[in-house]
Design goal:
The protein has helices spanning 3-38, 44-50, 81-88; strands spanning 52-55, 64-69, 72-78, 112-116, 127-130, 135-138, 143-145, 151-153, 165-169, 172-175. The protein is 29% helix and 26% strand. The chain crosses the membrane at residues 16-37.
Length: 176
């Protein structure tokens, strides 16, 4: 037996063993790491709370309902045609946080306004249908919001926040 033929066969076998050991080691390391990475994903109960579906059919024009999404109150207001017209007629130069009414509602659903029910000053819950602009009034420090949830007067620096939502149908929205 020559040294060259013996070395080639043993070298090929050695390479195969090294590649196999590396492959099994890589798969084993991935199997050990995966549970640690997977435990950082949200649990099923958290995922269930991440979205909320709301039936809008029982809400009358001019009515505001409060629902809970991710443990936060959310106002859903079915605005009247007069409220929509008043919100659209506002000069953006008058607003501390300029934003058009169209930017705050979904296309084709101008009557529906969905906002987080937390004053942007210190997080108090504003009262509906109150204040100088017939929208919301925060009793904590006196912020006034209009019918589009935009800040008009008071210490609050920003408009009421619009959460992510979409219309599932004409009478159903999915928040989150």
């Amino acid at each position: 037996m020559s040294a060259g033929s013996h070395g080639e066969g043993e070298g090929g076998r050695r390479d195969f063993l090294i590649i196999s050991a590396a492959a099994f080691g890589g798969v084993g390391a991935a199997a050990m790491v995966w549970p640690f990475v997977d435990q950082m994903n949200p649990s099923a109960d958290v995922l269930a709370l991440s979205t909320t579906e709301v039936d809008l059919s029982a809400i009358e024009p001019g009515q505001t309902v409060t629902i809970t999404w991710q443990k936060k109150p959310v106002f859903i207001r079915r605005r009247t045609e007069e409220e929509v017209a008043a919100a659209r007629a506002v000069d953006l130069g008058e607003l501390p946080d300029p934003q058009t009414d169209d930017e705050r509602v979904k296309d084709g659903h101008a009557e529906w306004l969905v906002v987080l029910a937390a004053c942007t000053h210190l997080g108090c819950i504003p009262k509906s249908d109150q204040g100088e602009y017939s929208g919301w009034f925060c009793p904590c420090h006196g912020s006034h919001y209009d019918t589009s949830g935009r800040i008009r007067k008071g210490p609050a620096p920003l408009n009421l926040l619009v959460p992510p939502y979409q219309f599932v149908s004409d009478t159903q929205i999915l928040i989150g």
